[in-house]
Write a structure and sequence with these properties.
The chain has 6 helices and no strands.
Length: 107
């Protein structure tokens, strides 16, 4: 869904969320950030807060999406899954997300 709203590659969003979650988990569980994750963080982001701001933006967009669309969780997930294999459902999802994109243009 974020890929449609933000016009970004799924890998970019997935990598950001995965890295942010790994860093978060390390802190929450009292561990240090792994060397691999620290290297990814240093390589891909100028400042530590960059990934955090990006992850928060994704979260805000997800919340706005769930407020704006007129589907319950099960219906929305079913549409997302169907959109992966059906052009008709993909178009339906794209149309459903247009108001979200419009709102985000003004933020």
């Amino acid at each position: 869904v974020l890929t449609i709203i933000l016009d970004k590659l799924p890998e970019e969003i997935s990598n950001t969320v995965s890295l942010a979650y790994s860093v978060r988990s390390a802190f929450v569980h009292g561990s240090n950030v792994s060397k691999d994750n620290q290297e990814k963080w240093d390589k891909e982001y100028e400042k530590p807060q960059d990934i955090l701001e990006l992850a928060l933006d994704y979260l805000r967009i997800s919340i706005i999406t769930n407020i704006v669309i007129d589907l319950n969780k099960e219906e929305f997930l079913k549409l997302i899954n169907s959109a992966l294999v059906s052009r008709k459902k993909h178009k339906e999802l794209f149309i459903l997300l247009k108001p979200v994109k419009k709102i985000l243009q003004h933020i």
